[in-house]
Amino acid sequence: MSLTVSDDLLAAAERGDVSDAEFVACVRDSLPYAWQVISGVAADLDANAADFADNEVPPPSETERGQLLRALASDAIRGGLERHFGVKLAFQNCHRVAAFRPSAVDSERYRRFISPRGQLLNQSPELRDC
User: Fold this and answer.
1) Name one Pfam family in it (predicted).
2) Where are the alpha helices (DSSP H) in 74-115?
3) In what order do the strands lie in the sheet with 96-100?
């Protein structure tokens, strides 16, 4: 299961739409490692003038790797995080998460990061089992 949904939030969802704030809080509480990584790259992006910030540190265990995969594989979760932090997220190798400024989505650096070539060049033997 990707998210731990409280009875109150589930009831609200059954009645209609939930707010981004409620959804993002559920993600934050359910996937703390993913939240830490994504909020970290978003903060790094905010702290500098670059259009890009990334995390290349592999998760400490498969549990944390699973959180990151669930967060970034879900369109709803990924979209909620992007809206919350005001970034465009990109993902490689089961752990490399990058945050781009929305204005940089058409940049050469973004296109290189998400390209098949970029994916292949970012491989190593220790990452092949992820």
Assistant:
1) KH_NucS_shadow
2) 75-85, 108-114
3) 52-55, 96-100, 88-92
pTM given for the model: 0.87
What 3-state DSSP class applies to 54?
Answer: strand
For 80, half-sphere exposure in the C-beta direction (CA atoms, 13 angstrom radius) is 20
Judged against a pLDDT cut of 70, whether residue 125 lies above it is answered with no
Mean residue pLDDT across the chain: 89
Residue with tokens 């003038």: 49
Rounded distance, CA 42 to CA 57, Å? 15
Concatenated DSSP letters of 18-38: --HHHHHHHHHHH-HHHHHHH
Query: H or E element: which one contains 96?
Result: strand 96-100
User: What's the count of helices (H) and strands (E) in the chain, helices before strands?
Assistant: 7, 3
Residue 122 confidence (pLDDT): 67
Rounded distance between C-alpha atoms, residue 13 and residue 11, angstroms: 5
**Residue among 59, 4, 10 nearest 27 (CA):** 4
pLDDT in tens, 107-117: 888 888 877 77
